[in-house]
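In response to a reviewer's request, we include the raw inputs and outputs for one of the modeled complexes. The two entities were modeled together in a single run.
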Amino acid sequence: MVRTRIAPSPTGIAHLGTAYTALRNWALARREKGQFIIRIEDTDRDRYVEGAEKIIFEALEWLGLDNDEGPNVGGPHAPYTQSQRLDLYKKHAQKLVKKDKAYYCFCTKDRLEKIRLEQQARKELPRYDRHCRHLSPAEIKKHLSANDPYVVRLKVPQKGVTVAHDVIRGEVKFENSGLDDQVLLKSDVYPTYHLAVVVDDHLMKITHIIRGEEWLSSTPKHILLYQAFGWKLPIFAHLPIIRNQDHSKMSKRHNDVSILSYRDRGYLPEALNNFLALMGWSHPAKKEVFDLQDFVTHFSLERVQLTAPVFDLTKLNWLNGIYIRKLPDADLALRLQPFIPPGCPDDIFKKIIPLVKERLVTLADFESLTEFFYRDIKLTTKDLTEQSRHSAPDTAKALKQFTHDLEKLSSSAWQTQKLDAVGHAILKSLSWSPRELFMTIRVAVTGKEATPPLFETMEVLGKKEVIKRLNYASSRLRRDFR
RNA sequence: GCCGCCAUCAUCUAGAGGCCUAGGAUACAUGGUUCUCAACCAUGGCACACCGGUUCGAAUCCGGUUGGCGGCACCA
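The model returned the following structure tokens for the whole complex.
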């Protein structure tokens, strides 16, 4: 039975890296009909942010990555929040001390800081000098009975090599002599990540640990811990990390890394999932566009790349446009609900959708693309006359004539086809190029040079509004000319 | 500094010794369509970091160099 997990820390936003890792863990569990677990790692009380946990679940739910166990849904290994499992970690730390695999360390932070500075001055690598590793039982007892604060440290073997078997990278070897005696239990009796992650992954029967590459160098510590407890090792897979454009580890300094901000900026979850899936992995059928279900059936750790990919918003934009265009109008209307601009009437909103669908990169683009439909437009003589070689009086005359012909159309005949016919009839009687005439009209009616097709736009705008705008444009031209 | 990981177009990638004078996608450029933009179609330029070795033959295997990244906390 495959059991995977993600273990985010509630330190603020829900990070894109979490979505990236979650997607892979989730897909593997779903493919194997196993379980996907979410565990909250809130053992750092200094970095804890109220409400951060809620944001994480909101983000994953938006992406459609549902979990089988976790603080939100419970499960056989509850609780799934580490701060509620403190006794467990303490018990396990003590167990290791009893087995002589760990030891109490009473060194003060001041002392640790001092030796660190000394080591730095001597250009040695900063690490614990193992002062308390060889304390006599009497000394330990003395400290304990004096209620001296302590931490529990792992007794890392001085010799030998710890080998990590990584599904993606193969064998990775670490000299034990290069490993520090890692703190397992902090003086506030909270566990460190290393203790908590190993205890929980074992107790929760996690079979595959799929996490970011930044964890690779702490894997030997974890393996040592598994061995100290006498537990079976899980399968490790270290994913390449996502990078900024400058190739450093992705951070908010260079990118927007908040999952929910992508939602708020008008990205579709299916686009973000598809995009994230393509980072460091490729579809065996070489597909670029595929849904979550397709990803589940085709995802495998074997196809994961070793090179860390660069986050490329351009490609996300492309995918987002594709997914928007794929949406039926009614569905798009639903997705657009949070993005309906102030002052946009419902009937207009519905009519505009097919006109802008293939022009939207994000849902948030809707407002800037459609504003002129329901808000006053700004217009200058220059805007109008710039569209052709013709003079202002001639332009006014042409617009006036067009307006005149439009007025003859009954309200029921106010349709794209009829409007198109009127437009082309005028074109024939003038010596204007199609582009000149229609651009001039477009600017007169919309105030913009790039809009949906002119006559469709006019149909949606309605006879009254179009005539009004045309009249304003020609009067403006005449006035400025005089 | 030490330990570890990595190295194909600008970017995402295909490639697991001959199918590669390196394929696809995005982006870019040009053209087509056209009332503009978008979409769509076509075309184009752009890469195996370097040096050795193994082999009849290397982007693919090995070694080294260089470069990039990650980790070295009572943070995760």
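As requested, we also summarize the result in words. Chain A has 20 helices and nine strands. Chain A has three domains: 85-239, 259-371, 381-481.
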